[in-house]
Amino acid sequence: MFKNIRKLTPFSLALLSIAFIMSISQSTMTTAYPILMKSFNVNASTVQWLTTGFMVAMTLVMPLSPWLLDNVSLRKLLNGIVALFLLGTFLAMVTSNFTGIIIGRLLEGLAVGALFPTFQSVIMENTDKNQRGVAMGVVGLVMGSALAVGPIISGLVLQWISWRALFMLFFVILLILIIVLQNKIENTHTMKPSEFDWFSAITLLGFGGILYDISIIPTSEINFLWWLILIISVSLLVIFIVRQVKLPQPFLDLAVLKYRGYVPAMLLTGLSYSGLIIATVLMPLFYQKVFHFSPLWSGLFMVPAAIFLSQLNPRSGAMLNRIGLKKLVYIGMSMMLVGYAILGTLGSASWIACLIAAMLLEGGNAFIMMPAITAANNALPKNLVSHGTAIITTMRQVIGAGSVVVASILITAINVNSSFVHALLMTSRWFIFVPLIGLLLTIRIKSN
């Protein structure tokens, strides 16, 4: 693992360090929900907006990343992204009301949404094609590990300090990091200045509307307003797509969709992310509701899966050139299939079975997500890499959010007529369809 990390440039390592700290913030809040509900006297559907709002904000900004890369120097862009994140974190840390935390999380989400496709594009552009698998394997290590260890860190902090300490921790570490790494930031991207297309930017609200509609399904009725938001959002996206095709220098160059293998690889990254994020949702429920472990211990039980993921990501990246994407995906989807099967049959019988299932679900992700992103972008010319990465990260977010909603709906619906334990088991069985769909998609991938 460390051998692979040493192959990256100092600038790439600086980007990864910043991305790691900001990534952790995605998954830390869920552990703090009960405390925040009590402190601010809000209900479960309201506190959920700390995650839902974060995800919507991320999705709105991701498609803008190619324009930002082409028009803002990397030094200014990176410092601006970090400054926005620090502002949101500081606001959430010192606020005296729940609305302040929501606004802070929205600002954090905007910053993370701008960073993710940007730093992945820059690393891809600055790495030779034959080394991209290794580089993106390390990126996968950072992204996956951060998502997995978020609940662990929040569990430890909340056990002995307070929820404000969570925000303080990220603020202090990131502030020190951006100051120390200033001399490592390089303007490596070739800029192509263009006017900011406000009309296209407004139509991007369609992504946020769709994600919002998806996210509120478990807690709200599908009424006239829900359908109205969906119709308006879809219409905005149709306008956005038509406009991008006609513009000489579009926000998102949809020509990437024409390259062979790109679309299947894009969908595979979403399915693998689904497996990873569902593991972080289901496993704490099994540990806390079935085996009655504390939030701290349920977080600690995620450590083996996080370690397994971090060990496999760089190795799978190195394997991409040797055995090809198709075989890697077969391995990863098979691991996810077995993981869901174990969780759906033995999940209520033994916490060790849950631990093994989590390792298989997260480990399977290592063989799919970053190798698929690498393979998809390897099929593109260098000038389209940022556009290809922006589309992949946006769609991955939408698929991941949809998976969480499906899991919530299944658990709630099944729990009406049976026990909560049975609902968790049946939900795990239903998600076996995710790797099965992935295996069918793999057939369309060109062999190495």
Tell me what you see in this structure.
This protein is mainly α. It has a single domain, classed as Growth Hormone, Chain: A (Up-down Bundle). It is 79% helix and 0% strand. It is built from 21 helices and no strands. The protein has helices spanning 2-6, 10-24, 29-40, 44-47, 49-61, 65-71, 74-94, 98-125, 132-160, 163-180, 198-203, 205-216, 224-246, 262-290, 295-300, 303-346, 351-366, 369-378, 385-417, 420-430, 433-442. Helix 14 runs antiparallel to helix 18, helix 16 packs across helix 17 (351-366) and helix 18 runs antiparallel to helix 19. The two termini are 24 Å apart. The mean pLDDT is 80. The chain crosses the membrane at residues 48-69, 76-95, 134-154, 160-181, 201-218, 224-242, 262-287, 293-312, 349-373, 394-414, 420-443. It is found in: Cell membrane.
